[in-house]
Design brief:
Blueprint (H helix, E strand, L loop, with lengths): L1 H5 L6 H6 L2 H31 L5 H29 L2 H18 L6 H29 L5 H14 L1 H17 L5 H4 L4 H21 L8 H5 L8 H17 L1 H18 L1 H11 L5 H24 L6 H19 L5 H29 L5 H38 L2 E4 L2 E4 L2 H26 L41
Antiparallel strand pairs: 1-2
Helix pairs in contact: 3-4, 3-6, 3-7, 3-8, 3-10, 4-6, 4-12, 4-18, 5-6, 5-10, 6-18, 7-15, 7-17, 8-10, 12-13, 13-16, 13-17, 13-18, 13-19, 14-15, 14-18, 14-19, 15-17, 16-17, 16-19, 18-19
Length: 492
């Protein structure tokens, strides 16, 4: 514990960039883990397609993806209690080793049922790993570096997709060069098999890195919530209710959940409808849509970097609703214009506002949720965001088609406003609805903060005389060094 804590004192380039050497190692582990997650998803979809060559490939892929999402809806709160009660470092290790074991068996899966079972196990391990990692971050990163830490987490989580896609293509070429006989067939070294083996190795490397990190430890009694350190099923049930009550009552947690959840519903609609909008209203081609996506990505990157640079100069609670409203307003402008020269820069503004939404939301939770509640809070939030994203992706095309039918019936898809003809197909109406949804999320988040006596709002900028003190993170920089705990000890 002492080694991790003492390393939080800024004393070098790594500390100045990452907050502490312990978080730097955890971030490297997350980069490798995220690459493995994306590569595993690509390989799993490829395997589902190969196992169903009778025209039901789409159904098989949907079933496998649903298996990766569904457990969270029913088990998220229980997973949060486990994260809060178990030793989080050992939980991370168990999840990484468990995921490695599943991936090492996947090359030998020859049925859709087996793939569904494997996907379910992978989701269980991921559902425990992610909130455990989030709950640990405030313990190894000084408070004034939490925004930077969350910006780095965003880069690690989503920036590894193109890397994983390139790695998948490379492994596919390697598989083509291997002879389809002998030991190659025995060990299933085809395109998916190679990807699964690389996945398994990546999670073992992640486990090895996490093993070297010294995290602050809670005693068994602290984790289990009683002096004797005994399991109490009644206590576990009370913790479930306590976690949900805290999420509903605490103004910061409530605002972040409302903002991210409702905001993801609105933003998620842009993904399936963006190409249709470019094609139908801008009369553009695939290259134009890719330009829009590029502007969105660049805007997000700039927004995340900006949030990190100004983190100690802004009131994060006050700015969180503002960036939500800005993202919704910019999307409303972009979806109202038929000109690519207007849409591209305005979509860049959408990305510029959307990037900090995640960063500021997670930072607010890291700063305002006590250690013994973080597992439950982050489990609930991660599942909420995933559910809202899935809902948006599934519902947006249906809403667009329904509104398009109504627009044809009522206005013939055109409205005359002050002598100006405005096209109102279903896709534009749906994106307007998405914009209003995001703006509404910002207003709801602001209402939630004001309902908590308004103490979190006020000025959008932090007081100039407020020191950026590493001690604000609750880290004892002068704690004596203690050796890292042994993995061989009981997981409790």
């Amino acid at each position: 514990m002492g080694e991790a804590m003492s390393s939080a004192r800024p004393s070098g380039r790594i500390e100045s960039w990452f907050g502490s050497r312990e978080f730097f190692r955890l971030w490297i582990a997350q980069v490798i883990s995220a690459t493995g997650d994306w590569l595993g998803l690509i390989a799993t979809i490829a395997l589902a397609t190969r196992l169903t060559s009778d025209g039901t490939e789409g159904t098989a892929i949907a079933l496998v993806l649903a298996t990766r999402i569904a457990p969270g809806f029913f088990l998220a709160t229980a997973a949060g209690v486990i994260v809060d009660r178990f030793d989080r470092k050992r939980l991370l290790l168990v999840c990484d080793v468990g995921r490695a074991a599943v991936f090492f068996t996947l090359p030998f899966v020859d049925s859709l049922f087996g793939l569904v079972v494997a996907s379910f196990l992978l989701e269980i391990f991921t559902m425990l790993w992610s909130p455990a990692k989030e709950a640990i971050v405030p313990n190894i990163v000084p408070k004034h570096k939490l925004t930077t830490a969350n910006s780095l987490n965003v880069a690690a989580a989503y920036g590894m997709f193109p890397v994983a896609a390139g790695l998948a293509a490379l492994l596919a070429k390697m598989a083509e060069s291997l002879p389809a006989e002998g030991w190659v067939n025995t060990w299933r070294l085809n395109e998916e098999g190679l990807a699964f083996y690389v996945d398994g190795i990546s999670f073992l490397i992640t486990a090895l890195i996490i093993y070297t990190i010294s995290f602050p430890r809670r005693t068994r009694a602290e984790r289990l919530g009683n002096e004797k350190g005994n399991w109490d099923l009644g206590g576990a049930w009370r913790e479930l209710r306590e976690g949900w009550r805290f999420i509903a009552v605490n103004p910061i947690v409530r605002a972040v959940n409302i903002g991210l959840g409702v905001g993801v519903v609105g933003g998620g609609m842009l993904v399936p409808l963006g190409a249709l909008y470019v094609d139908e209203l801008i009369v553009g081609d695939d290259a134009d849509f890719k330009l829009v996506l590029f502007a969105l990505g660049v805007g997000m990157a700039i927004g995340v970097v900006t949030a990190s640079l100004v983190q100690n100069k802004i009131n994060r609670a006050a700015m969180f609703p503002v960036v939500l409203v800005l993202a919704g307003g910019a999307l409303l402008v972009a979806s109202s214009s038929p000109f690519l020269s207007v849409v591209v820069p305005v979509i860049g503004v959408v990305g510029f506002a959307a990037g900090p939404i995640y960063v500021l939301g997670f930072t607010l939770l890291h700063e305002n949720v006590e250690d013994d509640l973080r597992g439950r809070v982050f489990s609930a939030l991660l599942v909420l965001v995933r559910f809202c994203a899935l809902f948006a992706l599934a519902v947006a095309p249906l809403v667009s088609e329904g509104l398009d039918t109504l627009s044809k019936r009522w206005w013939d898809r055109d409205i005359d406003l002050f002598g100006l003809t405005v096209m109102v197909p279903g896709v534009r109406l749906t994106l307007w609805l998405a914009s209003i949804t995001i703006i509404g999320a910002g207003l709801l988040a602001s209402w939630s903060l004001r309902a908590g006596s308004g103490a979190y709002l006020g000025s959008y900028f932090a007081p100039k005389d407020e020191p950026a003190d590493p001690d604000d993170a609750g880290i004892d920089l002068d704690a004596p060094d203690t050796p890292p705990e042994s993995v061989s000890e009981d997981i409790l």
